[in-house]
Design goal:
single chain, about 240 residues, alpha+beta, 3-stranded antiparallel beta sheet, about 50% helix
Length: about 240
């Protein structure tokens, strides 16, 4: 869903103004991208800027995905702006009441302000559960030691730094071979979400090459960590 605007005369203001429609993109039977109007929103006098309209769009899209059975578990729907929340509720209720949302089953109306602040366990779905606690703790320690910056200074590229940190954290949490480390990262660990290294690029061969690169700089790294830990403990 997205909002499309056109310029029309606004009788309330006595001048031209943006007239909004809520549009949906879809593919027809010939796989051609088409557009249809879900809702004629009209002139929105309460909005302050276009960012608020984008926030409303995100709320409506999230509710639509949730209605399809694809809830965004970590997406925060409530915004600080009361205008945004109220208008999102208004437009969602109009979509439901006018049967403008085609999902093949009954759609619930927008939640009340009290309901938005509650978590309903039946609405939670786990699709890709991964461990992150120990990885997060190691990541914080590495950031405190400023190891990524040091690796960059001695010639590691940004991607090589991300892979090296990914490997260091993984093998600190679960010491194993490159093959087993790659398997655990792919299946169980959320370490790539912390380090920024693409999960789909993880292979045992890349981990092995990263290990050799780290080992070749062993003396420099050990000297740096020795100095850094002394500085950290001395400052406590």
């Amino acid at each position: 869903m997205y909002f499309r605007s056109s310029i029309r005369h606004n009788p309330a203001k006595g001048k031209t103004d943006s007239y909004y429609r809520l549009i949906e993109s879809y593919r027809n039977e010939t796989d051609r991208v088409c557009h249809r109007t879900l809702l004629g929103v009209g002139f929105v006098r309460d909005l302050v800027d276009i960012d608020q309209l984008n926030q409303i769009r995100r709320i409506l899209c999230n509710r639509y995905e949730a209605a399809l059975g694809n809830p965004q578990l970590f997406e925060i729907e409530k915004y600080n702006s009361q205008i945004v929340n109220d208008l999102a509720d208004k437009y969602w209720n109009e979509l439901v009441e006018k049967n403008r949302i085609d999902i093949g089953r009954k759609v619930k109306k927008a939640p009340t302000a009290r309901q938005r602040n509650m978590v309903f366990e039946e609405s939670i779905r786990h699709r890709d559960v991964r461990e992150v606690g120990s990885e997060w703790l190691c990541c914080q320690a590495i950031e405190q030691l400023q190891l990524p910056d040091f690796l960059s200074n001695i010639g590691f590229t940004e991607e090589e730094v991300q892979l090296a940190v990914t490997q260091i954290i993984s093998r600190a949490v679960y010491p194993a071979s490159e093959l087993e480390t790659a398997r655990r990262i792919e299946e169980n660990s959320a370490v790539c979400e912390l380090t920024g290294y693409p999960l789909e690029k993880i292979t045992k061969d890349k981990l092995y090459k990263s290990s050799l690169r780290l080992f070749s700089e062993k003396d420099k790294i050990e000297k740096f960590l020795s100095i850094k830990t002394n500085q950290l403990f001395d400052s406590v």
